[in-house]
Structure formats: structure tokens, C-alpha cells
Amino acid sequence: SCDATQLCNCSSMGLEFIPPGLTAKITGLNLAHNRIKHIQSQDLKQAVNLRALLLQSNEISSIDEDSFQSLEKLELLDLSNNSLAHLSPVWFGHLFSLQHLHLQGNSYRDLGQSPPFSRLRNLSSLHLGNPQFSVIRQGNFEGIEFLHKLWIDGSNLSQYEQGSLKSIKQINHMIINLRNSNIFSEIFRDLVYSVTWLEVAEIELPVEKKSLVQNSTRPFRMQKLTFKEALCTDQTISQTIVSLKEITSLKELQAINCVLEGRGRWNTEEIARSGQSFVETITIIKAVIQNFHLFFDLEGMESQINKLKRLTITSSNVFMVPCQLARNFSSLLYLDFQENLLVNNRLNETICEHSWPSLQTLNLSQNSLKSLELTAVYVSRLPELINLDISQNNFGEIPEECTWPKHLKYLNLSSTHIPKVTRCIPQSLEVLDVSGNNLKEFGLELLSLKELYLTRNQLKTLPGASPIPNLVSLSVRRNKLNSFSKEEFESFRRMELLDASDNNFICSCEFLSFVHHEAGLAQVLVGWPDRYVCDSPLAVRGAQVGAVRLSLMECHRSLVVSLICVLVFLVVLLLVAVGYKYHVVWYLRMTWAWLQAKRKPKRAPPKDVCYDAFVSYSENDSEWVENTMVRELEQACPPFRLCLHKRDFVPGKWIVDNIIDSIEKSRKTLFVLSEHFVRSEWCKYELDFSHFRLFDENNDAAILILLEPIQSKAIPKRFCKLRKIMNTKTYLEWPAGEQQQQVFWENLKGALKS
């Protein structure tokens, strides 16, 4: 259960005792939310380097006195929410390094007779008390001189010995739950000289006529006093105001979730006689005033508010401040009326002429204001106003022109349902927030503007830079922004922060190229890279913009398609040229004819044989063939019938069909071979077909006549069977002498007859 830093988490494991085997390596041990009931002496003896020990929410009811003796380096000990019925000083006697101790939520009724924390010289925060805790005695806090935070659950505290908390010289922040109003006064008198910020919860303010301040030469330390969930009446408020004036160091008062049973009938005369208040800041949050609409106008309190600098009254049903009272807030700089019931006609009374003369910041957000034009008129009565928040009011419309305070620098109009921005927006602004208004564009000229917030609108592009040349920070988060270009980005010359996160970005090549190559973009974009996600293309949807890389085809599709088309066209053109040069069409037609011929019987029926031989020869050898061979053979006795292409081919019939028919109608085929023959394209065509037809039959239908000496290598290699015949079979060679020529003719005639 331990990580690399030796912090061991054994919480919520159903343990009934501290697990054995703890070593000096462990620095943190979490045993919270188990069922441990008893801590024994040996349980933690070896964990000498332990810094944090969490034992809250167990069932611990007893601890051996020397259980923590070896934990001299322990800084945090949490024993809260257990069943400890008493606290022993011996437990904490060796915890010299302890800074944070949590003991609240047990069942002890007091802190014992001896001071339990006297050895904890480094203690910084202490939490103690429970619903059964009822007694605080002198000496309980002996040994503690300084605490950063002290929290006491004294909701049922019934006895407090005066001076018990006086021994602590300084407490920065103290929180105490207290219902006994009499004890509150006693505790308060002890704390006024030591606590900087006192927070009191659940108190019912007492009717106290005795002074809350003792005669002492010690200086007051209390600067801030907070009441939470307190109950007060008109009488107790009046007396509390008078009593607190004695604490000259008190500068801030807070009331949170407090209930006032009264109508504002305060003893203003007594309050005025008691002198000037030193409080500068008052904060009232969620005050509950029964029948608040009957609350008095606090007439007579004018003299008590003229030194006040900050006033916050939120979520408290404020619907108006009387004009006369408002005029006496002469020093007020900050006023917050967020989430109240102010309407325009009451605002006219609240911000009347010469009221709030020094006010610089005003928050009227989440009220019931309906007219932006009237609101601007009333606010213009505040000559020193710099910051104005009127967000989350339902204005609905925005006029073309408005009157504003001349020094206004900050204006918040977010979520006010304005459909557009007009020249009603003051030119003096440095900060403008118009988020959440469904704006489709922003083109307003604001030369002094430095910060612009356009979150949650409908913008599809960044606003133009020229009308807002001094912009330093821009937020267009959660709009309909698809991308932004290098030119748009660089047009904002002073831009330091740009929040364009949570938009549906189209990760185009141009946008990705800009994002990946723009120097310093990551330092300007808020939320980069986690909150910048691609919405399209579909293949990269959900991916971070900075991590997406698109292929060349995806980035330059039109160019790639154009190149492919050009390449295909060139290939087709090349094929056409090659086909034209090498008669490919003719070869294709010949191949088709040959395939058809393959399906025919290899030999024509005897009745269809018309010739003794088909003669294949070169045109250059035609004189010998036609004048010598034809005369010799066709005039022989008996004569031979020869098929010559010049004479016997059917006119108009395709040449391949003529060759096929002539070979099939001839018993033999004579090839008159010569150098002209093997170089003749025409003869090659005849050989291309005839060698398939004739030599596949494996017979002697072919007769080779060598008209002149020729090497077999000169015959094209693809006619392998023809070369094989020349190498393996006898062929007739035309002789030069007449005597040998007679023998040649006799041999040829014999071959034709065979």
C-alpha cells in the first residue's frame, strides 16, 4: 500500500488493529475509516521517521501512554471522530515536531486536569471539541504561545474559566462553535488581545451591558470578526455595535447566514453617542430578515457609515437604499449588491444625485434590472466609478447611445441577453465582458480596450483587430470558432493572452500548419494544448490540435488528384503513341482472331481444301516466287494449286481472316525464307499467326525454302518453334546452278505431294 515516497494508504480496509511490520522507511501512514479500537505500545515503535499519521474515523477508545513515544519527527496527527473519552498529556509528550493536531469529534468532556499540549512547542493548528465537550479550564492551553489556527467545537460548552485562552499569545485565525451567549462574552474578552481573525458560529448574540474589553495595557490584535449562523435582534445588534467600537483595531465585520429578528429599530442615539466606528469593511451574505419589506430605513445611522470603505450585502433581499443614507457613504470605495432585488425605479432612489460620492467599484449583478439605458443614466451619477458589474440582469435590448461615468474602465455585461453591441458601450473602457449573450459578431471600435471577454457566444471568427488595436487579452472560449489564421493572430500586435479553448476546431492543413509553426503560440494560448480539440475531419475528432498531423494527400488533395490525372493522361498518350508505332491494335485484332481460330477444328474437312500450298514470302522476293516458283509448280504435270496473297485473297476481307482461311484451305504452307523475309513486318504478321496454328499440330505441314543463306539467330526469338524446326528438320535451299535447281524442284514437288 506504499508509494515511492513511502506514503502508505491503508484506509477503508476494515482493519481492527494497526498492521504489524511497520519500518523506519515509512513517512506517511493513512489508517482512516477502519475499525481500530486500541493503539498499543509496540504498534508504531519502529516507524521512527513517520511524518503524518491519519487515524480519523475509527473506533479508538484507548491509547497506551507510550504509543507515540518514538514518533519524534511526526508533524501531523489526526485522531478525530473516534471514541476517546479522555486526553492524556503523556501521549503528546515526545511529539516535539508536531505541527497539526486534530482531536475533534471524540467523546471527552474536558481537556483534563493537566495541560495536554504543554510539550508541543511547534504546534501550528489545533482542532478539538465535540458535542459532549463542556468545560474549558485554566491551564488547558499552557505551553502554547502561537497558533496559526485554533478550531473549537463548543456547541454545548457550559463552563469557561476566565483567562483559559489568555495563555496563547497569538492566534491568527480562531473558529469556535458556541451557543451559550454568556460564555461568549467571557471568551471574547480573553481573545480580543490575541486573535487576529475570530469566527463565531451558531451564537445567539447576548444582551450584554458589560464592556467586552477589559482594562489592559496590551494592544488589541483583533482585526476581523465573523458571525456565522448567528441569531440577533434589534436590541442585541445595537449593543454589539456600541461594544465593538471599543476595539480600535477591528477593521472588518462579516455576517454569514445570520438571522435578524427585527425591523431595523436600532438605538441610533446610543450608537451615535458611543463615538466613531473604526470598521472599514462590512460583509453581509445571505442575511435572513423576516418581513424584510417592513425593514426601517436606518435613519440616524448616517454618522456611523461615513468612514466605511467596503460594503458587501449579497443574497439578502435588498431592494433599495434610501437616498439620504446613500449620501452619507462618503468614503465608500467598494459596494457589492450581488443577487438582491434591485429594480430600475428603486435604483433611481438608491443611486440618487450626490450619493456614494467616492465609489469606485459597484457590483449590481444578479438583480432584476430591465433597462440598460436607465441603469447607465443612474450609474452616471457616480463621478468616481471605475468598475461596474451589471451582469446576469435581463436587459434584453441595448440602445444605440448611453450615458456613463466618464472614468469607467471596467464593464461586465455578461449574460444580460443583449443581442448585439452598439455605441452604448463606453469608449473609455479598458476591460469589457460581454460573455454569454449569443453575439454573432463584435466590430465595435474601442481604442483603449485591453481585455475583451466573449466567452459563450456564437462567434465564428476572431473579432477584427483594427477597432481594438491595444488589446492585450482576448477570450473567445466556447464559441463557434472553427479556426483562426496566421494573419488574424498577428493582426493583434499587443496580444499576450488568447483563450480560444473549447471550440469545435476544423483541423485543416492551413490551420494545423499555422499552429505547428507559429513561434510562441503556446505561450499565448490559454489552456493549450489540453482544451484545444479537433471536431473534424472525422478521423481526428477528439484529438488535441497540437498532436494532429495530416498526410500529404489530405492536405493537398486537389493538387494530388490533378497530378494523378495528368500522369494518367500522359500514360494513355504514351500507350497510344507506342501502340500506333508498333501496330498494337493490329496485334490485338490478330490475337482475337487467333483465339477464335483456336476454337475451330485444327484441320478443315477434305472437301474444303482448295490449295496444295499457301505461300508466305516477302514482297522483295515476289519476282522469284511469282515468275519462277509459281510457273514451275503450276505448269507441272500434274499442276499444283498455290495460294498467293496477291492473287487469291478475297478483296475487302480482313487480312488476318484471309491468312487463317488460306492456311486452313491449304494442305501445306511454303515459307520462302530470306533476309527480306525476317525483316518484313508483313511476313512477321503471317508468322505470328501461322506458327501457332501449324506447329502446334506437330506434323510436317510446313515446308521451309531458304532462298538465300540466313542465320537462325536472325529469326525473332518469340518464334522459337520456327527456329527449332530450322535446327532439327531438313529445309530446301535454293541452289545457284541449273543442274542443282532441277534437283531442288523435284524435291519440292515431292514434299508437296507427301
From TrEMBL:
Spell out where the chain crosses the membrane.
559-580
Q: Which cysteines are joined by disulfide bonds?
A: 2-8, 323-352, 402-424
Pfam families documented for this protein: LRR_8 (PF13855), TIR (PF01582)
Q: Which UniProt keywords apply?
A: Disulfide bond, Glycoprotein, Immunity, Inflammatory response, Innate immunity, Leucine-rich repeat, Membrane, NAD, Receptor, Repeat, Signal, Transmembrane, Transmembrane helix
State where the protein is found. Membrane
Q: Which family does it belong to?
A: Belongs to the Toll-like receptor family.
- State whether it acts alone or in a complex, and with which partners, per the record: Binds MYD88 (via TIR domain).
- Name used for this protein in its record: TLR21 protein
**Native species:** Melospiza melodia (Song sparrow)
Give the source lineage, highest ranks first: Eukaryota, Metazoa, Chordata, Craniata, Vertebrata
